[in-house]
Amino acid sequence: MRTRRAFIWLLGGAAAAWPVEVSGQQPGKSPTIGFLGADASAFSAWSAAFVAHLRELGWVENRNVDIEYRWSEGRTERYAEIAAEFVRLKVDVIVTVGSAVPTVRQVTSTIPIVFAVAIDPVGSGLVESLAKPGGNVTGLSLQAANLAGKRIELLREIVPQLRRLAVIFHMGNVSRY
What is the pTM (predicted TM-score) of this model? Predict the structure, then answer.
């Protein structure tokens, strides 16, 4: 008898509290990531790794985060068009490559822009400094120019008898992104 009363009391209490609990948990809008890449097939490994790492961090696509994929199809003139579309969609962040950042930044100064990789983000003007990027742009850098001396130093430690070193460099490559 006591068990039955306890059960009914528990069930009644849960039923009375249910509407209050449900009304307090309105479904919210999931954050939306705008993913701008060059080509779906070329970026498939990158986008798969991106989604996999988001999942490791607890962000599951179509469950608690949405991703809007857009591809420039190798045409850099499409960056502005795609960035404007992301602004209209009100994405929460734009993830792209360093070469797209100058164009995307011209379209929005409020949506955070995260670049996957840039060669020299400070020298190219993508960010103010590595420690404090400033503005709405941040990302990962290869730091090729800043690390050249350190790489030679490490090479000397690994190969102490090294007396000559040849460096091959394409002078026509003016890309700083």
Answer: 0.69
